[in-house]
Design a protein that fits this description.
By secondary structure, this protein is mostly helical. It has one domain: Protein tyrosine phosphatase superfamily (Protein-Tyrosine Phosphatase, Chain A, Alpha-Beta Complex). The chain is about 35% helix and about 5% strand. It has 4 helices and 2 strands, in the order ββαααα. A two-stranded antiparallel ribbon has the order 1-2. β1 and β2 form a beta hairpin. α2 packs across α3. The longest helix has 17 residues. The relative contact order is 0.16. This is Protein-tyrosine phosphatase. It comes from Trichinella nativa. GO terms for molecular function: protein tyrosine phosphatase activity.
């Protein structure tokens, strides 16, 4: 998760997860099934901007990658709109995978491929340069 629930007084993400050891009700759906979820949040990233410290973000991505090692479940990445911060993180993680595989990195090509799946990923020139 790449957003706070509230940023500059505006709701950016509803709290869709229950508090620790509590049950959350979502409409009329009910289940007694228990699920284990790892929820990771990076909140030092302004909407439509870039983080002040690239090392902190890279450390976060490395931690996410280590956490998902051996997992078969999908990883879900989101910010508030799902295109700016989310796109940068996906581009960064994809680039790390290519580096590990000793493959060349062509950021513009990666972004074009990503936009085939989700239009408008990476919103600003500053996010792309970051």
């Amino acid at each position: 998760m790449l957003t706070a629930t509230v940023e500059r007084g505006r709701i950016k993400c509803h709290q869709y997860w229950p508090k620790l050891f509590e049950t959350q009700r979502y409409g009329r759906l009910q289940s007694n099934e228990e699920r284990s979820v790892t929820h990771m949040q990076y909140s030092a990233w302004p909407d439509h901007g870039v983080p002040d410290d690239s090392k902190e973000l890279i450390d976060f991505v490395v931690e996410v990658r280590q956490t998902r090692t051996g997992m078969v479940e999908p990883v879900i990445v989101h910010c508030s709109a799902g295109i700016g911060r989310t796109g940068v993180l996906i581009l960064l993680e994809t680039s790390m995978c290519l580096i590990e595989a000793s493959e060349p990195i062509y950021p513009l090509e990666i972004v074009r491929n990503m936009r085939d799946q989700r239009a408008m990923l990476i919103q600003t020139a500053g996010q792309y340069k970051f």
